[in-house]
Write a structure and sequence with these properties.
The chain has helices at 36-47, 52-56, 72-84, 93-102, 114-119, 132-135, 156-167, and strands spanning 11-17, 24-31, 90-91, 106-110, 127-129, 147-151, 173-176. It is an alpha/beta fold. The chain is globular, with a radius of gyration of 17 Å.
Length: 188
């Protein structure tokens, strides 16, 4: 359901798709939000041999108590499409955690608001907080000679930040799937 609805709860979805045919192979979901509807849609797609393109062409019901204007499953499908096309380059939360543990040299750019950052953040000297709204005006504060991994609450702002950085000439940019909602847990 939409974030502004008083009874809204979050969901985290993973969609499994065959690379070549884009056939949907399965899904996982966690969270307190409405998951049964999403799993039912995937189960129907599996039964009929549906593909990612079929999913993205669905017009699923919208009403604030039940779903956002674009269903979270369709958002997930769009992310998968962007990954398959090389537009979205990602790490899972587990992969980011492993990079931190190995001591790799990269910047974890947190594009959430300062209030969100203070409430919960990854404590490491490789973390830099810079809001998405300020990013375009403060690109000079982001090093161009390091790998940049962007992170936000759920992933959408991190994806947008990664695209802004790539458009500004940054060469090695990825975003963390699932954002802080997926940290430190992962659906692998």
């Amino acid at each position: 359901m939409t974030h502004y609805h008083p009874a809204s709860n979050k969901v985290l979805l993973k969609l499994i798709v065959e690379k070549g045919s884009k056939k949907i192979l399965g899904a996982q979901g966690i969270g307190k939000g409405e998951l049964a509807k999403r799993i039912d849609v995937v189960a129907t797609m599996l039964y009929y041999g549906g593909t990612l393109d079929d999913l993205l062409n669905l017009d699923l019901g919208y009403a604030p108590p039940f779903s956002t204007p674009i269903d979270p499953l369709v958002h997930t499908g769009n992310t998968v499409k962007n990954k398959l096309e090389g537009v979205a380059k990602t790490y899972t939360a587990k992969e980011v955690q492993e990079k931190l543990e190995r001591g790799e040299d990269f910047l974890l750019l947190d594009v959430r608001t300062p209030q969100q950052f203070v409430m919960r953040n990854i404590e490491d000297n490789r973390v830099q907080q810079l809001t998405l709204g300020d990013l375009r005006y403060k690109l000079d504060q982001v090093p161009k000679d390091k790998e940049i991994v962007t992170v936000c609450v759920m992933g959408s702002r991190a994806y947008e930040a990664a695209r802004i950085l790539e458009g500004a000439g940054f060469k090695d940019v990825k975003f963390m799937e699932g954002g802080m909602e997926g940290w430190p847990f992962d659906m692998e």
